[in-house]
User: Fold these one by one.
Assistant:
Number 1:
Amino acid sequence: MPADERLTVKFWGTRGSIPVAMNSAEVRRKLIAALLRASGRTLDTPEKAEVFLERELDFAVSHTFGGNSSCVEIVTGRRDYVLCDLGSGARVFGNDVLATRGPSGNTFHAFMSHPHWDHIMGFPFFMPAYASGNRIRIYGCHADLEEAFRGQHAAPSFPVDFSRLPAAIEFVRLEPERDYEIAGLRVRPKLQHHGGDSYGYRFQGNDKVVVYSTDAEHKLDDLAEIRSFADFFRDADLVIFDSQYSLAETTSIKEDWGHSSNVVGLELCQMARAKRLCLYHHEPVSDDERIAALLAETRRLEEITRGDRRVEILAAFDGMEIAL
Amino acid sequence: MDLTQKRYADTVVLSPVGRIDHSTSEGFKAALEPYMARCAVGLDRVLLDFVRVEYISSVGLRVLMLASKQAKTQGGSLGVAALQPAVKEIFDISRFTMVLDVFPSVRDGLARLSPPALAAFDAG
Ligand SMILES: [Zn+2]
Ligand SMILES: [Zn+2]
């Protein structure tokens, strides 16, 4: 990677478990809130309206966190694309590649947390797979990863069998707790608690560290495990963290459901001296107000529990970009 | 962790002190255990006076969750009272106020848990 290149992280899908879409009632709620805030203002040009939206409306009114399932891109400055998971956000990413780079001649490296449906479901609609001249390398630690991808393309669930995809597609089995050099990044997978197992990835490139850790439950009474995750997150510039449930849920009715909370994400980042925590894999039931409130609460928690170092708190939304 | 205890009729008020985090929660759990064993129908009710708790982490909250589950299966009652503002915020953000019985003061907690205990508390 050239020395002047930074790492940028782009979020194409941030929703957990299943994609969701905003409905008309929610759109109307946002419009009514925006119109009320705008009453008495002269917003007679697109520019004025734009400034008003950005400066005067809350994020949950002027935006949406979006509803595509897990897919994150790490932009390294090299020509090859690097992705984490191929949930429904991969469909949007693939279309963007077609629009900006053309249909063919591209290489993709996709690191899979696990083969649960919400993490692979974008692949049948990932247009670069339908063009020869594209190369797609799918990395993961699960023995049955390829089977899962082939299964969702098979009849009667999908009309185009995997074997008929024109792109050159390879599956690459990785081992946890080992370092790999892939696409200009040093990559290290780590086993996580989740139904059928999941793996987090620590990416290092150009002195920046991004950790992708989704679909992971943390056993709070296992100090050795907590320490091993603090090491995995150590000094990271960005930790992308599954915060689907509240801490109370993960220790009661949703214990062993395989997900974590904002509270545990923050504690791990504080122990690890990580710079940024990004809340991710949002609960499908949560609307924009609820996720915005979760973000505000997590920022407040960081404030009241801060030691000698601040952790910046973000909540991922579809379309968000973070330059590290 | 030392838990000072005071008894009011059928209710034991326990007072932890300081931070309940990864380094102290095991001790907190161990200190709580004998009281939780007796937190059952026909035996004691337990109220945790949190006025001197400065911080509680996820692992400390988990100890409270386990204690609360134990109380429920034994038909006992467990409450937490007098949270400092920062600790109250931690309870709110983690949603523990939705799953534990949290009271503004020890007196409020006793009033809810046990009328005889409240009478004993008010009698000084
Ligand atoms: Zn998932
Ligand atoms: Zn999963």
Number 2:
Amino acid sequence: MSMQTELGSLLGWVEGMRSRVRKLAREWEDQEGNLIMILHAIQNEFGYVPRGVANELAKEMKIPMARIYEVITFYHYFRLTPPGQHSIQVCMGTACYLKGASDLHDELARRLRLLEMGGGRGGEFQLETVRCIGCCGMAPAVVVDGETHGRLGLDDVEKILKPKRGTP
Amino acid sequence: MSRKQLTVSDLEARWAETPPARKWARVGLDTGGIAAGARQVHKALLEAREDAGLSVDIEKAGPLGLAYADPVVVVGDESGPAVVFGAMDPESARELVEGYFQDGRLLEDRVIATRERGRDLDGPPQVSILVKDTGDGKPEDRTAFFQDLFREELTVHGLDGVVGVYRALDMGLYGKGVCVQLLPSRVTYANVTGPDVRRIIEKSLGEGQVLEDLLETAVEPQERIVLRNCGHIDPDDLDAYLQAGGYRGLRRALLDLSPEDVIEEMKTSGLRGRGGAGFPVWMKWRNTRRPEADRKFVICNGDEGDPGAFMDRSILEGDPHAVLEGLLIAAYAIGADKGFFYIRAEYPLAVERIRRAIGQARDAGLLGRDILGSGFSFDADVRLGAGAFVCGEETALIASIEGRRGSPEPRPPYPSEKGLWGRPTAINNVETLAAVSAILDRGGAWYAGIGTEQSRGTKVFAVTGKVRNPQLVEVPMGIPIRTVIEDICGGAGRGARIKGVQTGGPSGGVIPLARLDTPVTYESLQELGSIMGSGGMLVMDETDSMVDVAKFYLGFCVEESCGKCAPCRVGGFQMLKLLEKIHAGKGRPEDLATIREICHCMRTASLCGLGQTAPNPVLSTLQYFEREYLDLVDARGPAAARQARRGRESQSNWERM
Ligand SMILES: Cc1cc2nc3c(=O)[nH]c(=O)nc-3n(C[C@H](O)[C@H](O)[C@H](O)COP(=O)(O)O)c2cc1C
Ligand code: SF4
Ligand code: FES
């Protein structure tokens, strides 16, 4: 790609992003208690809250950027970095914990050679822990790209990861 | 297109309707069911129906609560009571349609026998026999052997091919030897021996005689008020809720009672908040009604903070209109014009269903201006949480809806005086509100007749951990914890022994085996150093380390601390370090004294409930299982610590006393 087309598509992205943020802000304008809802909508759309988008939102809502960051960083749900291609969520609810979820998580982390924090920045796998996902009867449970696997032992880790390797 | 607004007479007509006779199969499509494959089961049922050309209504519902048996399908027709199938997959779904709906055949190892047991054989002839060895200390499972005995005996009597014999997935009885349930009568026999088989076939099947010596007469300990519709109606269908008597409580409140009367009705009912603290509902509503203000708000707390619990999610997914109706009634009682459901973003299905319920209620005129011609106007909306446990605390929740960090504020002023945007606000838990709609329908006095003097009504628990059948239960207050764990959930299962039960999640404590006969009431749990909490019940067996469990909960609280006040931020962190040290076998005896000191400081000096209650799991395990801490302190190094934590025989202080 030439410099120019690359720049062009970037500018196009920025324009598109701006108009989406404007639209969101307007949609929620007269609704009470909207900031967190708008951030949810942004994360739904982009997979995380990109800095540029947060900046745009601050302008649109006429509030300081620091206010927005203060909120984003307080809540675990909001991400500041893009998610990985494949998401692996280890349930660390009490039932799963009792049945060995933390060993399972460590084994997954070891295999993926990345730590839960910091790692997975746009990488292939994103390893996270979540709280009870509602299938305690199947504890310990892991959700891979939206699909739940239950009653897992350490030997099952390879089985879960294998079909995902190298696939987008 | 908005639907026609419903009038009171439309509602009354709906309530009086009797549904037409039909065949139906209902799939539990809640988060847990879906994770276990309920969508595929639903699809397979639809396809099999088409292939067989049958007229069976394939419906969806919320959770029945039988988490251990997901995916669950309930089937019924005009011929007899509904049958519950568990552990379904697409293949068995097909078999179900082909077998059950065409010639009444059941499935092997899929039926969950009901606890609504029959007492007589006066009705239609029996067509199925469920068999299961529920254990009585013998190691081998004799189910298959008894199935053969029954089949042989049926052949002798020329009944093979007429009566089916099936292994039950669960009998609802435990440790009662071989149990048998006859269908459709539901007559159930326990501790059945070889010679009994002939008697059952000859007397019960042949002559319609109940064998009193074998008859199981224990009654279902559960009572479903909050969960009245969960698993029984389509949560996405307002009509289904209306047909089940939905919005009758609202009609009564709006048209027959004044707001003061409604508050009085709550007082009569004795209902206390189910979100944790157990504050009387009527008092909260009165306190919120009292102040003069231009606006008032109601909030439904659906943040469900306990990391291993699923009561509120199940209710929202199974019967969203029941909660919305409760919120409407609360709003009328205190004079609010706007309400919010604050729900965890991690509960997308609950959010979707409550949003749909709100939309339907708006279209039907149950939300909006001048509801049912009463002059009362109200609207509701959803606001999402964003993964912060502390936002379950009232003042933090309010901050979060207002779009700020969820930091708690000192109380007073209470939200009932200065809440959302400074206006009087009543915050109630999901389960509380689902009980409210039932109470307004059936009356406060009815509700007060259930439970104990101080703790009235029923409570929903999510029982998980080292228990045979993890599930959602709803029991009258005052019932022993043992009944919940052993009679309903089947105890620890074969070969294992329960060591203790944690109630109240990260804010609660552990109840040792020796105290399992304690009744579930707010007071009795508190006396033991635990709390009722929102309803999490975690069962631990002898292989679980109490120090590990305490460390887990404390770790959770430390991670979730908002950091606003030092006792919680610093104290929690320091205590966790000490626990980790002990857990790794590097602790010293004086560490325990330090831990107790920090606990005391956090309890008394923390700003909000999170910090005040975070020490509970540590203190209560120290109280009842100090030996485990000491063993770890005595252990030299990590290997010895591992030894001390794992595979140990129970060493609870209680048992050695
Ligand atoms: C740290 C903390 C977390 C809480 N989490 C919840 C929760 O997840 N759900 C809930 O209903 N109440 C929770 N509560 C209790 C609420 O603050 C409040 O008492 C409750 O929602 C009131 O409703 P109720 O009177 O109907 O129980 C929490 C309290 C604290 C201190
Ligand atoms: S007790 Fe903990 S969570 Fe509560 S305000 Fe203090 S630091 Fe925050
Ligand atoms: S704790 Fe993992 S599914 Fe419930």
